[in-house]
Amino acid sequence: MSARRLVLCLSLSVLCVAGKPTEKKDRVHHDAQLSDKVHDDAQSFDYDHDAFLGADEAKTFDQLTPEESKERLGKIVTKIDEDGDGFVTVAELKAWIKFAQKRWIYQDVERQWKGHDLDGDGRISWHEYQNATYGYVL
Fold it and tell me: Where do the EF-hand domain residues begin and end (predicted)?
C-alpha cells in the first residue's frame, strides 16, 4: 500500500509541475514609442511624421512651404536609400527611423547635460543636479 501511495504522490507532483501555468505573461518585447503624439492615421500623420524625421526635424518641416518640404524630403530619401537603387526598402526605412530616433535621444541628452552642468566643467556634481532639478540653492 505504501508503494501505491508513493506512485500516487509522484504522479500528482509531476502533474503539478508539468501543468499549464495560470499566470499569463506578456512575452512580446515592446519598443519605446517613436513619438509622443497619438498614432491614428485616420486623424493625422503627425506620429509618422515625428517617427520618420525625429521630433525636432519634424518641427522644422512644419515651417517650410510645400515646395521646400518636397525638396528636403527628396534629399532625405537619397540618404535613406543606402544601396542607391532608387527604392526605399522596409529595412532601409526601419534603419532610418532608428537613426532619427537615436539622433534625437543623443541631442536631448546633450541638452540635458548642459542644463545640469552649471559650472561647465564637463561633470555634474550632486549639488549641480539638485539645483538644476529641484531648484536648490548651492
Answer: 68-103
Residue 83: helix, strand or coil by DSSP? coil
108-121 pLDDT tens trace: 888 888 888 888 89
Domain holding 39, by residue range, is 34-134
Q: Are 35 and 51 in contact (CB under 8 A)?
A: yes
Q: What is the pTM of this model?
A: 0.48
Could you tell me the three cell numbers for 110? 546633450
User: How does DSSP assign 32-53, residue by residue?
Assistant: PPS-SS---TTT-SHHHHHHHH
Domain count, the chain: 1
Name the grid cell of 134: 529641484
Residue 91 lies in a domain: yes
